[in-house]
Amino acid sequence: MVYLKFDKTLLINLEESLSREVLRTNRKGAYHSTTIVDCNTRKYHGLLVMPVPKLDDENHVLLSSLDETVIQHGRITVRQSWIVIRGSIMVCL
Predict the structure, then answer these.
(1) Is residue 37 a contact partner of residue 92, using CB atoms and an 8 Å limit?
(2) Full DSSP string of the chain
(3) Which residues span the domain enclosing 39?
(4) pTM greater than 0.85
(5) Percentage of residues in the chain with pLDDT exceeding 70?
(6) What percent of the chain has pLDDT over 90?
(7) What distance in Å separates the CA atoms of residue 56 and residue 41, rounded to the nearest whole number?
(8) How many domains would you assign to the chain?
(9) In which region does residue 92 sit, left (phi positive, over 0), alpha (psi from -120 to 50) or beta (all else)?
């Protein structure tokens, strides 16, 4: 498993962190692209972006983001999901 680690001071500085991007691709033309703080700032950013040949020759964002809400014993926790793509995980420290 491959881990990408970023310093907390970089992550809290939006001017720096929004300009740094993560790109993960496969061999079929699909990819995941976003900033290191998981903020989709460009139209081609998303968790799953891929060509749809039956529509046209362009790439389409099929999954922009994914959030989860956990309710346990009356307590609500909202978390942004970890980015996991084929055995790789992005971890923000």
Answers:
(1) yes
(2) --EE---HHHHH-HHHHTT-EEEEE-TTS-EEEEETTS---STT-EEEEEE-TTT-SSEEEEE---EEEEEETTEEEEEEPPEEETTEEE---
(3) 3-90
(4) no
(5) 82
(6) 15
(7) 24
(8) 1
(9) beta
